[in-house]
Prior knowledge:
Elements: E1 2-10, H1 15-32, E2 38-43, E3 53-61, H2 64-86, E4 90-98
Amino acid sequence: xxxxxxxxxxxxxxxxxxxxxxxxxxxxxxxxxxxxxxxxxxxxxxxxxxxxxxxxxxxxxxxxxxxxxxxxxxxxxxxxxxxxxxxxxxxxxxxxxxxx
Length: 100
């Protein structure tokens, strides 16, 4: 199993709107690509961040090929929507993990 992890620090004053948009629009759009079998979103509790609110969104793929398909065919467009809506109000760090 492959885990595509997106860690996002969001400005405190918009994090509720960002979270609502992520759970009602963005994450469902990512799942509609068919590249992932599931997803979860977590709020970081520790260590506490000095600014903003930090979330981790995890998407589960059966194999690396499905993840790569997402990156090639869908990621740029879906990420651009987020930048257009919340640009400058968040920072994101992406990583790919393999279950061992």
